[in-house]
Amino acid sequence: MTQSGTPPIVTPTLTHFDANGQAHMVDVGDKRETRRVAVAQGRITMQPATFAMIRSGTAKKGDVLGIARIAAIQASKRASELIPLCHPIALTRVAVEFALDEATSAVACTVTAETVGRTGVEMEALTAVSVALLTVYDMCKAVDRGMRMDGIQLVEKLGGKSGHWVAGT
């Protein structure tokens, strides 16, 4: 508390910049290895006919959600190749779930990524969700170019110095 009784203002720092403002990869060498989990989600909304095609499995390119699941897993393993300052990490588990919402003609994707390491797996989970939704778009764009992806976000994170975090808390 300050002398006036108000809490001190804490200025957050961006860890990917050094003292001179230059971009750098964060040094995680001194961090303790812990189990780390990240859960991300997003959704893609489409025309009802496109949704029905995905649900019934009658898309010309094949099993849309099956292919999107594999794409998500592949993407999670390549996050460090796509995001310049993201550390390459050994994933111990990647789970991809889809939920179909007929009322809104939307497919929701949730990815859980896990590792035992010195840095978190948020980027891997977020990349996986993004690529899963992009794959749905790619597989269905011939019949519905107006599909819309939204709500891509981290919803939960466990492990590391900051502990357990849940969106909205």
From TrEMBL:
It is an enzyme of class 4 (lyase). Substrate binds at residues 85-87, 123-124. It holds the Pfam family MoaC. One of its GO terms (molecular function) is cyclic pyranopterin monophosphate synthase activity. Its EC number is 4.6.1.17. Pathway: Cofactor biosynthesis; molybdopterin biosynthesis. It catalyses: (8S)-3',8-cyclo-7,8-dihydroguanosine 5'-triphosphate = cyclic pyranopterin phosphate + diphosphate. The keyword Acetylation does not apply. NCBIfam families: moaC (TIGR00581), PRK09364.1 (NF006870). Belongs to the MoaC family. PANTHER family: CYCLIC PYRANOPTERIN MONOPHOSPHATE SYNTHASE (PTHR22960:SF29), MOLYBDOPTERIN COFACTOR SYNTHESIS PROTEIN A (PTHR22960). Catalyzes the conversion of (8S)-3',8-cyclo-7,8-dihydroguanosine 5'-triphosphate to cyclic pyranopterin monophosphate (cPMP). This is Cyclic pyranopterin monophosphate synthase. It comes from Aromatoleum anaerobium.
